[in-house]
Amino acid sequence: MKLHVLILDDFAYNLELEKKVIETFLKGHGRDVRIDLAKSVSEALEFLQKTHYDAIIVDMNLPDGSGGAVAKSAKEIDPKTVTAALTLYREEYENYKDYFDHFIKKPIPPATYTKHFQWLLAL
């Protein structure tokens, strides 16, 4: 079964790094994955209206709003979607914590990143 993941971050470098780490990690565990990348809250919300995601990973503080709004929308669409906040802004996460399954504080090295995302294997 192919996993479908959405990553939301306003920095292209972070998006590409997270994508590569997840792809490498899941490939090493025999899992196939499709990853969509969003650079804004509005773009992520558009993705959610068109596509089902098994998991989403969001930055919280974005130029056009909070990643928490994306997690909330994802959970309203499908409560089984696994959501993770990857952010510097713990306070912003706290405002939306009921919509998240996992919290990871930035900055995070790739090796630690993979340890946090082992929950993807359970999907």
Quick take:
By secondary structure, the protein is an alpha/beta fold. The protein has helices spanning 12-28, 41-50, 67-77, 90-96, 110-116, and strands at 2-8, 32-38, 55-58, 61-62, 65-66, 82-87, 102-105. Helices cover 42% and strands 26% of the residues.
Structure write-up:
This protein has helices spanning 12-28, 41-50, 67-77, 90-96, 110-116; strands at 2-8, 32-38, 55-58, 61-62, 65-66, 82-87, 102-105. With 123 residues, the chain is an alpha/beta fold. The chain has one domain: Response regulator (Rossmann fold, 3-Layer(aba) Sandwich). The strands form two sheets. A five-stranded parallel β-sheet has the order 2-1-3-6-7, with helices on both faces. A two-stranded antiparallel ribbon has the order 4-5. Helix 3 (67-77) packs parallel to helix 4. The chain starts with a strand and ends in a 7-residue tail after the last helix.
Defining traits:
Rossmann fold, globular, 7 strands, two-stranded antiparallel ribbon, 123 residues
> Looking at CATH, which topology would you report?
Rossmann fold
List the helices and strands in order: EHEHEEEHEHEH
Give, in spatial order, the strands making up the sheet with the most strands: 2-1-3-6-7
CATH superfamily placement: Response regulator
* Overall outline: globular
Report, as a whole number of angstroms, the end-to-end distance: 9 Å
Please describe the biggest sheet, giving its number of strands, its sense, and whether it closes into a barrel: 5 strands, parallel
User: Any idea how many domains?
Assistant: 1
E-strand count: 7
Strand content: 25-35%
- Any low-confidence stretches, pLDDT <50, length ≥5? none
CA-atom Rg in angstroms = 13 Å
Q: Percent helix among the residues? A: 40-55%
Query: What structural category do the secondary elements indicate?
Result: alpha/beta
CATH architecture classification name: 3-Layer(aba) Sandwich
